[in-house]
């Protein structure tokens, strides 16, 4: 899961063009949206699209767990790992 | 302001007068501005990317080259004017690269980038600037038509019936190659902001005169001549569009 977290940090910096921010500056369990990194709702959609492309996972926009999955890099990594397991099975 | 229509011989003519309180101009190519009109600034070309260091990184990251240009001139004018005011944003084609990208993604059956889409709408730059400056005043985004940038002045004249001053922000960039056979070319990115108020006894007076053309005029391409005139201190001149000629004169008191 650690390697997914590292990949996600790189991906977030790239897609949001976060000048001057390095992967190690993003704390795995800090909030991604609002207070933490300061990303907004459009960024959430953009990130969802990037995750679909990179990990070929399905994201159910109506799932009530979605806010929890997108809360932090750690949660997202766990969500991606669980989706990948589902696909392998 | 005098927005009278003479209507001589069935040809409506219009005059508009403003006090030009301040202006700011940016072009992606370096220009000489030693003789530029007074009460304004020509912002440094900065290697083709307008300087927006006044914005926090999270706000900068969404700005295209065009949006940076528009926000930079608007920011400078607003600061020089020392306060907030309603604003009129004007562009013929806006974020043409963004909406072309979106259309091409759709044509290829791919998912559309949400942020690219949100930034491609015509009022995106006006919206970003109102967020950056924390403004709660009215903002409008006009798409240019047959009056070119002078459409923004007509709008401003209307607003000045109600408010003391207004800012216009006009901006354009070269169109993607695919569109270039269908519209007048703009050689580089430029943005112009002006703080306008009603005609007054003192201050620079900017007069505009609209002359409708009979038959089909030859539309001049490139950036408006008004911009070049501002840079080299030319105080009268005109821009010719397809169906209309707009004359301007700058007077000092």
From TrEMBL, chain A:
<feature type="domain" description="Carrier">
    <location>
        <begin position="2"/>
        <end position="84"/>
    </location>
</feature>
<dbReference type="Pfam" id="PF00550">
    <property type="entry name" value="PP-binding"/>
</dbReference>
<protein>
    <submittedName>
        <fullName>Phosphopantetheine-binding protein</fullName>
    </submittedName>
</protein>
<dbReference type="InterPro" id="IPR009081">
    <property type="entry name" value="PP-bd_ACP"/>
</dbReference>
<dbReference type="InterPro" id="IPR036736">
    <property type="entry name" value="ACP-like_sf"/>
</dbReference>
From TrEMBL, chain B:
<dbReference type="InterPro" id="IPR014030">
    <property type="entry name" value="Ketoacyl_synth_N"/>
</dbReference>
<dbReference type="Pfam" id="PF13723">
    <property type="entry name" value="Ketoacyl-synt_2"/>
</dbReference>
<protein>
    <submittedName>
        <fullName>Beta-ketoacyl synthase chain length factor</fullName>
    </submittedName>
</protein>
<feature type="domain" description="Beta-ketoacyl synthase-like N-terminal">
    <location>
        <begin position="36"/>
        <end position="248"/>
    </location>
</feature>
């Amino acid at each position: 899961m650690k390697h997914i977290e590292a990949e996600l940090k790189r991906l977030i910096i790239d897609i949001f063009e976060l000048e001057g921010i390095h992967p190690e500056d993003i704390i795995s369990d800090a909030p991604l949206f609002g207070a933490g990194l300061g990303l907004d709702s459009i960024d959430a959609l953009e990130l969802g699209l990037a995750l679909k492309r990179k990990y070929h996972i399905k994201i159910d926009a109506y799932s009530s767990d979605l806010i929890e999955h997108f809360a932090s890099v750690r949660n997202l990594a766990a969500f991606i790992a669980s989706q990948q397991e589902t696909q392998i099975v | 302001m005098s927005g009278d229509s003479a209507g001589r011989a069935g040809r409506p003519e219009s005059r508009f007068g403003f006090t030009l309180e301040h202006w700011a101009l940016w072009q992606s190519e370096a220009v000489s501005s030693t003789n530029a009109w007074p009460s304004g600034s020509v912002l440094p070309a900065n290697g083709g990317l307008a300087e927006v260091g006044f914005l926090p990184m999270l706000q900068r990251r969404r700005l295209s080259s065009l949006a940076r240009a528009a926000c930079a001139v608007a920011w400078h004018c607003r600061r020089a004017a020392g306060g907030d005011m309603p604003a009129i944003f004007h562009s013929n084609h806006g974020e043409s690269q963004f909406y072309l990208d979106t259309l091409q993604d759709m044509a290829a059956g791919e998912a559309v980038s949400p942020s690219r889409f949100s930034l491609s709408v015509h009022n995106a730059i006006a919206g970003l600037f109102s967020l950056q400056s924390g403004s709660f005043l009215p903002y409008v985004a006009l798409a240019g038509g047959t009056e070119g940038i002078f459409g923004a002045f007509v709008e401003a004249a209307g607003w000045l019936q109600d408010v003391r001053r207004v800012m216009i922000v006009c901006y354009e960039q070269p169109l993607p190659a695919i569109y270039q056979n269908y519209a007048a070319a703009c050689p580089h990115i430029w943005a112009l902001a002006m703080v306008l108020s009603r005609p007054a006894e003192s201050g620079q007076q900017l007069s505009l005169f609209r002359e409708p053309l009979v038959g089909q005029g030859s539309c001049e391409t490139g950036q408006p001549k008004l911009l070049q005139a501002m840079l080299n201190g030319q105080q009268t001149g005109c821009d010719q569009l397809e169906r209309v000629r707009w004359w301007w004169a700058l007077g000092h008191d």
